[in-house]
Amino acid sequence: MRTALVIGTGLIGTSAALALAGRGVRVHLMDHDPAQARTAAARGAGTDQAPDGPVDLAIVAVPPAHVAATLDGAIRGGLARAYLDVASVKGGPRRELEALGCDLSGYLGTHPMAGRERSGPMAAIADLFEGRPWVLTPTRETDTEVLNLALELVALCRAVPVVMDADAHDRAVALVSHTPQLISSMVAARLRGADDTAVRLCGQGIRDVTRIAASDPRMWLDILSANPGPVADVLAGVAADLDETVRALRALESADEDKRAGGVAGIEDVLRRGNDGRARVPGKHGAAPATYETVIVLIGDQPGELARIFADAGRAGVNIEDVRIEHATGQQSGLIQLMVEPSAAAALAATLRDRGWAVRQ
Ligand SMILES: NC(=O)C1=CN([C@@H]2O[C@H](COP(=O)(O)OP(=O)(O)OC[C@H]3O[C@@H](n4cnc5c(N)ncnc54)[C@H](O)[C@@H]3O)[C@@H](O)[C@H]2O)C=CC1
Ligand SMILES: O=C(O)C(=O)Cc1ccc(O)cc1
Description:
Elements: E1 3-7, H1 11-22, E2 26-30, H2 34-42, E3 55-60, H3 64-76, E4 80-85, H4 91-99, E5 107-112, E6 133-137, H5 144-156, E7 160-163, H6 166-189, H7 196-199, H8 204-210, H9 217-225, H10 228-252, H11 257-279, E8 293-300, H12 305-315, E9 322-327, E10 333-340, H13 345-354, E11 358-359
Helix pairs in contact: 3-4, 6-10, 10-11
The protein binds 1,4-dihydronicotinamide adenine dinucleotide (NAI) and 3-(4-hydroxy-phenyl)pyruvic acid.
Enzyme class: oxidoreductase
GO molecular function: prephenate dehydrogenase (NAD+) activity
InterPro entries: 6-PGluconate_DH-like_C_sf, ACT-like_dom_sf, ACT_dom, NAD(P)-bd_dom_sf, PDH_C, PDH_N, Preph/Arog_dehydrog, Prephen_DH
């Protein structure tokens, strides 16, 4: 691929453009708000000048409701040899394109499974897609050349291609992305009018569960509006679990021992099913779920502490597989959790202790 056109230079479009431009592709940037394309160009994602002929690949990265009309315009204008979109929902845009009478042989619906809580070109990063699944939804009418260009884009962005049917994709993302967003928002919404004294007690659990509740509501309204049925189906299952759990908790308040035992069984059931589901979440780079051992260390909230602890772990010859920091409310210190291969945990803890760190575990 030598030339590309990104239409919609927000978070996703500009991130893809940065990755392509960084690997030598000439990228043209277009947005219905020219200021967004200018900002993306200023960040080194390409040029906001229009191409003077058809580019190799056009990447449409606009909100789902505008995908079909934008693609239809681009295809009719002959802007590229091949076209793809990156919208979070795949079935609806394809059906809209069909209804518009568009020639779909040069089009492929795709979806990179990577995002951030922020929107717009300033939030874009070149390595956003590294190691993440990028779904491709070819059909029998998709030209091989288009599929090959899409695979080249995915490779240039260092993502991992996954081929799926469009409607199966929409059901899958309802389960793993769209419903979790709503549940996170609902948990966070409990905090809105909560007492300050309660909010001060927030720990890592609620931070983990509500991280994505900070996302842009307009973007999620667009996504949920394009996938309402599958999300409602998953949420109805969650609602059934909620009803059961409320009943089980009320039973725990009962004076009747049998009722209390039933309540315990109900709560245990949902917690154990949660363990089973969590164990299925893939590990880093899509690998099988990994079980790491965690070494917990007290660190000061001051410049250079993280660099120092990582350098000391390097001295122990230990690869840190994952890391989390738990900040203590109102204190200039926190706990860092270093996740490592179980066989490396003891050596890491010993080296860190020798070098003066307060190792908790
Ligand atoms: N944000 C995320 O986490 C992810 C989003 N996506 C999908 O990527 C697409 C873009 O999302 P973001 O980059 O997050 O949104 P964004 O809000 O950061 O950027 C969207 C851009 O599209 C432009 N735009 C809107 N309508 C347009 C039109 N008709 N013609 C040309 N430009 C237009 C806007 O001015 C804006 O610059 C959406 O379809 C979204 O579903 C896919 C994966 C992850
Ligand atoms: O939901 C996730 O897993 C994310 O990492 C964020 C995200 C949001 C929207 C998408 O279309 C894809 C990914």
